[in-house]
Design a protein that fits this description.
single chain; alpha/beta; Metallo-beta-lactamase, Chain A; 6-stranded mixed sheet; about 30% strand
Length: about 210
């Protein structure tokens, strides 16, 4: 069974995820830890749980999701894995950081590109990789049918959706990703988003104002 732990980091209140299972292997998704204190929180959890990080993943590469990429890659000797369509955002992240008065060490180059239909494997577990563009051109989500959850990045939030007005975003594409990829999942699927608390597919299909007619 996959254990899901998340930390809310940086000024954008971004959720960084650590997924682990009985093997004590874990993966780190979207490390937004930009300060030493945030990085210490992440490290202390991993140490306390006796976990071994084996993969570093970005759902997408907007600045708030990659602030800790370089740190995590170096600390745990991990290669970065993203969708190929996120390369432009990844390379632009230090420049965006300066606009917001933040510092962002340049992220390492990806060691692997994630593709829809592939499996994200760690320990005794695997997640389905689902291509969900719209908020960002290469957004990917990670789905566990066995444990009934999806890590969806900034695609879908509780009673809201991701922004589509950032570089590479497209509202029509985003709505299609949600309707055709996420809303086809079982209704009891828990959605872990890049910001805010968890929700479920059932709740969003009933109450999300972008899909429910008034």
């Amino acid at each position: 069974m996959i254990q899901v732990q998340y930390f809310t980091f940086n000024g954008f209140q971004e959720n960084t995820y650590v997924l682990s299972d009985e093997s004590k292997q874990c993966i780190i998704i979207d490390p937004g830890c930009g300060t030493m204190n945030e990085r210490r929180m992440l490290d202390e959890y991993i140490k306390k749980q006796d976990l071994t990080p084996t993969r570093l993943i970005n759902t997408h590469c907007h600045i708030d999701h990659v602030l800790g990429n370089a740190y995590v890659a170096e600390k745990y000797k991990l290669g970065l894995e993203i969708h190929e369509n996120e390369l432009k955002n990844l390379k632009a992240s230090p420049g965006y950081a300066s606009v917001f008065g933040m510092e962002c060490e340049a992220s390492p180059e990806p060691s692997n590109f994630l593709k829809e239909g592939d499996k994200l494997v760690f320990g005794l577990s695997s997640l389905d990789i689902i291509f969900t563009p719209g908020h960002s051109p290469g957004s990917v989500s990670f789905y566990s049918a066995i444990d009934h959850f999806i890590v969806a990045g900034d695609v879908l939030f509780r009673e809201s959706i991701g922004r589509a007005d950032l570089p590479g975003g497209n509202l029509s594409t985003l709505l299609q990703s949600i309707s055709n990829k996420l809303f086809t999942l079982p209704s009891n699927t828990i959605v872990y988003s890049g910001h805010g608390g968890p929700t479920t597919i059932e709740h969003e299909m009933k109450y999300n104002p972008f899909f429910v007619q008034p």
